[in-house]
Amino acid sequence: MDSERWDAMYDSRDRVFSGNPNGVLVTETAGLPPGRALDAGCGEGADALWLARRGWQVTAADVSGVALRRAAATAPADVRDRVSWVRTDLLATPPPAGAFDLVSVHYFPLVRLPGHAALRGLLDAVAPGGTLLFATHALADLPPRSREGPAPADHYQPGDIAPLLDSTWNVLVNETRPRTTPAPAGTNHAHDAVLRARRMP
To answer: Methyltransferase domain spans which residues (predicted)?
Structure first.
């Protein structure tokens, strides 16, 4: 990913996102026992901090150093030791295999490529007994073309990922649902496409 472009986007305003955790994360992980979590594309850190407050040890990864510095600056003292802010491009450098009880991938720019290398890196990071949680904007809510970069239809949807999971996975959720929080200003993101899958112990 282009780190300079993402840094410029975060530098363009004081806050890009709401500061609240994603509704899908709250709904789908509230009942999970805390463990080790990877927040892929953590941005300004709302999801990572929500998980940390609930006892998770979080690796919060993003390509933007600006976003990570902003996220770390907002972390309350009582959870700072539960979050590691890591600047990395997860599309180019996969996370450690089998290292996380939860891999959370929310609105991450994951483009379908032959061999699915970047996706498989994230899948492999889920430990036995762990959970993959993938959420993105429903394709019907997106324009057919992007102003820059790949078209929305070139990015993974849950229906693309579920068939790639072998018999060591149990798909628990694969659906499109109305958003539980308001859409970002200037967008028509009324629905989330959600996949939650558990890797067998």
So the answer is: 38-130
Closest CA to 59 of 30, 32, 88: 88
pLDDT in tens, 130-159: 999 999 988 877 766 656 667 777 789 999
Question: Is residue 181 a contact partner of residue 23, using CB atoms and an 8 Å limit?
Answer: yes
End-to-end CA distance of the chain: 33
Instruction: Please tell me the chain's helix, strand, coil percentages from 3-state DSSP, rounded to the nearest 5.
Output: 30, 30, 40
3-class secondary-structure state, position 65:
helix
Q: Residue length, the chain?
A: 201
**Between residues 181 and 76, the one the model is more confident about:** 76
> What's the predicted TM-score (pTM) here?
0.90
pLDDT of residue 146: 59
Residue with tokens 């628990």: 172
Q: Taking residues 175-188, report their average pLDDT.
A: 77
Contacts of 11 (CB under 8 A, 6+ apart): 66
Residue 49 DSSP symbol: H
